[in-house]
Amino acid sequence: GSRGPAAGAAAGTVREDRFLVCPNAACAIVLAVPSRGSQTLAPYRHICPICNFQTISVTNLETGKDHRLCPYCFNHPPHDLHPDRTDLRCFQCAHQLCTLAGGRRPGIAGGVGG
Known about the structure:
mainly beta, 3-stranded antiparallel β-sheet, two-stranded antiparallel ribbon, 5 strands, disordered N terminus, disordered C terminus
């Protein structure tokens, strides 16, 4: 018989690979987004100052916590700010001018006071 996508998954975990796809054929960008079944995704009214993509809000239905991420930076973290990251959420980002960036440390030259 055929086996479903969760046949080999651990009990209780649900994962669906999810992507944002640009409908403009000239663009052809496809970006992975968080894939936990317990997370919902919604547009968020903020444009990323690094890449000009619209951010999204990710809500964990189990914990009630939410955070923002830029779909482009999530897949392609800016190496000048985060050379060792393979994915990036706004609360981890160190961009000095972004109001969603939560990874800034006080005392960095040019940093926002805090």
